[in-house]
Amino acid sequence: MSTRSLRLFALLATLVLLPASAQAKKMADASNTAIASPRFTADAPEIYKAISIDLLEAACKSMDLKPERGKDNDGDPCLTLDFDGIKTVLLMYGDAKECKSMAMQASWELPEDADMAVANDWNRARRFTRAYVTDKVVVLESDLDIEGGVTAETIGRWVGQFKAATAKFVEHMKAKG
To answer: Where are the domains of the chain?
Structure first.
């Protein structure tokens, strides 16, 4: 395992211990993915512009998210994760070796006494996620564009924020229903 991979996994392990759960990614070859840091120091975080499903799956396993590989309706790779009993799908857009954007999605049956207001109220009050209702299913989702460059910490925070949002969304639906 390369020093770069070890550093990435060490950062992931640290992020898992924080309240906002973490996930990390690896990019293509360092020569074409690194961006100069404005500080120009050796401690500057590495910038990633793509990620492979292999590294993402390993990171999710290290966070005990129980990833299961699959394909979405368009044939793109995805991982199904367990957020404390809430099934969440991490969709990867692009191929399995160079994913350049991702989305996370969780869905629930719409409670009988709930309607579009459950999603509208959520969207009005929250940032970083969106909810919508379709065919008696309510969906919560969030996107992350990697192609412009992100750090492992950014990806970990994104996963952690979505995990926290799923729990809050369940409470929101109960309060509305």
So the answer is: 3-176
